[in-house]
Amino acid sequence: MRFVILALDGTDAEAPARREAARPAHLERVKGLFEAGLFKYGGPLLNDEGKMIGSVAVYEADSEEALRAEIIDKEPYFTMDVWRTINVYPHKAAPYFE
Predict the structure, then answer these.
(1) What average pLDDT score do residues 67-96 get?
(2) DSSP string across the chain
């Protein structure tokens, strides 16, 4: 099953520095998940000034519980306190994107 993650970063003054520090580990992890067929698409959410304030991602997982345990809980943006709000939604791709 596919899931969309909408995750917002903290809004405190240190939030951009935490994102920058976690980004290399995040990108490396996403690369491995993409190669395994679990990560489908994603990228940063931007504010009006073009600064990163969160993330959107589409993942394949057996259940929301599996997504949280196997992907979100091990995600550097989560473990390094970048993401402060995480919303997960079941998602169905249009037929031509299956």
Answers:
(1) 94
(2) -EEEEEEEE--STTHHHHHHHHHHHHHHHHHHHHHTT-EEEEEEEE-TTS-EEEEEEEEE-SSHHHHHHHTGGG-HHHHTT-EEEEEEEEE---GGG-
